[in-house]
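Deliverable D4.2, example record:
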Amino acid sequence: MTRTELVALLARQLEAWREGDGVLGVMLVRLQRVREFGLFYGFGAGDALGAAALARIGSVLRPQDTVTQLGLYEYVVMLPGLRGHNHAALAGARVVRAFDEPLPVGDRAAPVSVKVGISVHPDHGREAEQLLHNAETAYGASLRDSEDSALYDAAGTPPLIPYDALHQAILGNRLQVHLQPLLDLRTRRIIAAESLARWTDERLGPVAPDRFIILAEETGLISPLTRWSINATLRHAARARAVDPNLCFSINLSPRVFGERDLVAQITSALGIWNVPASAITLEVTESALMEDPKLSLRRLEDLRMEGLGISIDDFGAGYSSLAYLKYFPATELKIDRSFISDLRDDRRSIQLVRSIIDLGHHLKMRVVAEGVEDAESLGMLAEMGCDCAQGYYIQRPEPADVFIDSLAPAPNQTSPLH
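Output generated by the structure prediction step:
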């Protein structure tokens, strides 16, 4: 079932709901520690694992409850007739406990766990989309607070971003492209820039990217947001490359758009419109996001790579089973997660890990980029380790695309002041 179909189903249930019928709960359940299983036993085994988890969740629900599989390892449970918030929390705890024992998958046992986020009608919303959004927010809180299950807490949550506000901002081209450069650590020249979407709303003010991007992924707006990002970035890239023909650009890509059949055609068409070569563009996908649907991710990335686009694995080292899946994906670049770089000066283990990632990337013929560089000492250490590129506030903060392009030197061999 798609999210749109799920919203429609919940909306129909809400229409028939009477206040005297008690509380209606919406529970989001996602499997954890599943990537290792798929990588050890094959991507096909992941489908069987998802089905086994669906059955396990169903086994602990009441007859009136319904569970729907939304993604490969994602489930939404509707809990009508609850007595209140505590009853909803107990339902979440029951689902969590159901995964204390490994799941039987064929002749194997899969030790997985779940994280749960719950919202309740009417206290956490009266509309289907809002209830699902708040269940997602509660799920995020469970991850952040290292809890197995969390109930939505309005007091600890930023104000809800209206769907229409983001929708109109995308359609009206009211988002902005900011660019953050990548520094070549051998030549000390700026050789590329990462494109970052920014949004300042008239009523909401500046909206953090992680908030509006998550909203876009949850509501289906990620497709128009991706189209906007690609075209807006390429428009600026065309202008920048008129000054420096060697300058390259990175664009963040959500795997939520991998299911679109015309994704590759969209990107190649935009490249043609703006006359930017595919070799000048690298698409960044986070390590953990790649593994949400490994088979689809692999197929789509291979298609994009065949068109000459670069593929970067972002936040490398922060996800699961990095070494196990690297051989599958046609990546051309690794971006070391900033959590390793921030400890570089003070933690010997971080130094060893970063050095190992750099060596690994080079053995696999990939460029290695360190993100989150905040000081000269870390930059020098990375250069000594043989890291190819770096980005971070010490080098340059993200700035509006027009400002970045206006600052480009006409001479392509001009060096960075960081030398």
